[in-house]
Amino acid sequence: MGLPPKRGDLILYSVLAVIFLASCAASGLLLFTARGGSDLVLEAVLDGKVVESVDMKSLKDESTIEIRAGGGINVLAAGPGGVKMISADCRGGDCLRMPAIDSNGDVIVCLPHRLIVRVRSRGPAKASPIDSMTY
Question: Side-chain half-sphere of 44: how many Cα atoms within 13 Å?
């Protein structure tokens, strides 16, 4: 066994525990507030160009969005619960198995049609410290 902790050690451990818990709470709050937001836009991107753009606030009722892309048709179901790909005439249908998207940064990808459906916050694009060279 070891020697019992000294009074100064207990104070040091307590201060370190408080600092650790405060930093965890602050980082969790930052991640939570940065992820969501009411000023979100749904974009359908084909070959790097936005072909459809919908304000997420306008999705009060269930509606469908049809996108003709890459020689095929993709149909999205959009509503207050998020956006989900419900129909695609592509081979494999992997995009149909992707979950609904509703937060900043979420994506649905249809590779055969070269279509990316993404949710992003409105405003100018911010430079990211992570790029293709980082990975």
Answer: 22
Q: Which helix (H) or strand (E) holds 21?
A: helix 7-35
CB neighbourhood size of 85 (10 A): 25
Residue with tokens 């979950």: 99
Give the residue among 19, 73, 9, 18 at the shortest CA–CA distance from 44.
73
Q: How large is the average pLDDT for residues 10-33? A: 87
SS3 state of residue 13: helix
Start-to-end CA distance of the chain, whole Å, equals 47
Give the pLDDT score at 61. Answer: 81
Q: Does domain 40-121 have CATH number 3.40.350.10?
A: no
Angle at 12 between CA 8 and CA 13, to 5 degrees: 120
User: What are the residues facing 85 on neighbouring strands?
Assistant: 76
CA 36 to the chain's CA centroid: 8
Q: What is the pTM of this model?
A: 0.62
